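*** Backbone structure tokens ***
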Amino acid sequence: MTDIIDELTWRGLISQSTDLEDLRKALDSGPVTLYGGFDPTAPGLHIGNLVLLLTLRRFQLAGHHPIGLVGGATGLIGDPSGKSSERVLNPRETVAEWVDRIRGELERFLDFGDIPNSATIVSNLDWTGDMPVLDFLRDIGKHFPVNQMLGKESVRARLEAGGISYTEFSYQILQAMDFLELFRRQDCILQIGGSDQWGNLVAGVDLIRRVEGGSAHALATPLITKPDGTKYGKTEGGAIWISPDLMSPYAFYQFWLNVGDSEVPGLLKVFTFLSRAEIEDLERQTAENPRARAGQRTLAENLTTLVHGADATARVIAASRALFGQGELAEIDERTLADAFSEVPNTEVFLATPDEELPSVVDLMAQTGIVNSKSAARRAITEGGAYLNNVKVTAEDAVPSRADLLHGRYLILRRGRRTVGAADVRIA
């Protein structure tokens, strides 16, 4: 990569910048130190944060020195950006725990090895935790005209929605101070963040100019949204987390596998490190043969490998294929099968005694919801479209045996090629 600005531009990763040509000159003149901030307002990072994290990674691959700032201080007070009401303040112990978790997640994506542009992780609690409030007001607060602060989009939106506390109103001052501290401590001259943070980004640039007479830059990435305008970081069931204990690798893979054709090119640009030629080829394949879903499969495989590793991705792909009759269900490990169970229509069956007979296939198909009724289940069997653990069911009165239970508890039912359900059998 010879020009990171050109790279970010064609990937659609530049929403705003203070002076793009001046920044390009600074980047071309030698390695630059930059940072991006991650507040511990949740137990982990989601894919909205991943945009910023991968952008830091792209800068590092281009030879620059990235700093991942974990907001041990700012996470205690709340950021008004993107919210219509005050954030519920979390206990200090909870925030400290989340800081440690986010540190670990940052370490998965940036290179902290023995290289000239090794990444660094810092917490802004290091320079704010012991700062006297009078020093903060005299040395930092005096540089922030209230009229300008009131003009920030995030503040104005909150005022129009009913008001904002001084706690969250002061967030932009603390974020600006972070930039000033890193400018002083590590010669950091660039801050990157999401476009909803633009007001806070330029506040730091202004503070450096006023206090140190220095020159600094801000660059905002766009918020990545779905066709309906909602953020990709959220689903009806919650955030798309990048931690396996918050969202299973199987669910993560399936999310990307199911995005629409029109979304694929943009997502490949933002979330993968594939070249321009590779992405254009996938775009062509998707247009010519959308049923093959080449773009979605590449996106899901690349991103799951990036976030969860190659081994987890291989297990997920094997499970995904096996569920639809293209592999051996018995070879799927119990954890991955359990993850898959939670992502398809399912039912739980409780047997009172070890000798009690399992429900019939007809009953199970109806209970999972892969058919509308028991009569529809019988019709599927008669027509040759009903399967138990990928084996065609030929008798309407078929009943699974104990030997059919995968890992001693799971049954996979399928109607036709694509409609899959599962049963979790619990035996007293």
